[in-house]
Amino acid sequence: MTPSHGGAAGEVRPAPGDLAGTTARDGLFGPGSVTWRVHSDPTYPLAVLRALMMQVLHVPAMSVVFATARRLDDPWERLHHSVQVLGTMTFGDAAEAAIMGARERSVRMQVTGSLPDGRHFRGDDVDVLRWLHACQVDSALEVTARCGLELSDASCNQYLREQARAAAVTGLEPEEVPRSRAELLRALKADRSQLRVTREAREFMQEIVSPALPAAMLAAQRNRPSWAPIAGLVFPTLPHWARSLYGPPPEGSPAALSPSAATIALHTLRDSLRTL
């Protein structure tokens, strides 16, 4: 989605110290924000894909991820939906962002389930929402950096503070989400003991790194981006603990590259996308 400046005029109250002077026409962030810089990068959809790979390792969060999918093993439909949601939340005006946030909250409120130990969960539980958020912001910073977008440490922390606004619109309190790189690392580590690879998560991943369909058929698949044949490059950018949970990818696939080799390839991909 491209930046939009539609909607009624008016002021949006900024978070303390963040984005002072942002108007309703600018939405949650505004053109001077780090968020606009990160989310308008041509490689940002790859970051969303990485976030999905991480999110589905958390069973309750996986239920939220799949809540709007017709096929549970179709990452491209989920990617398309997520990019649309994040595009509206980023570049839409204040009213558009609020409506999208309300829709997302409505979907999550309807998600319920049980874990193997008998515990029940809801899609709008704080720990579920926090995991979804942490995976998204971590992936945005990690993937765009590996692709060549240069951000200082201060800009990375500013991005996380800005994203507390998006978290508030989708059901979290700003103080419940990480607002610095150090807090983000702690948030991801806190939930690590709950992560596991389910059959659904593995099938989801296989569609990215080792699709069963011939390339010609995959190219015609609905919502499949043009760079999908090399989307496996995202796998080496996952944290070591996530790669370990999934296990080794197919030998010879882009997913089997080392993290450093994948970074070089991602740089090349970004250059190509920027040219296009």
From TrEMBL:
Q: What is its EC number?
A: 1.-.-.-
> Which residue stretches belong to region Disordered?
1-24
Q: Say which species the protein is native to.
A: Spongisporangium articulatum
Q: What class of enzyme is it?
A: oxidoreductase
Which keywords does this chain's UniProt record carry?
Oxidoreductase
What Pfam families does the entry give?
Answer: MPAB_Lcp_cat
The record places domain ER-bound oxygenase mpaB/mpaB'/Rubber oxygenase catalytic at 36-255
Which protein are we looking at?
Answer: Oxygenase MpaB family protein
- A GO term for molecular function: oxidoreductase activity
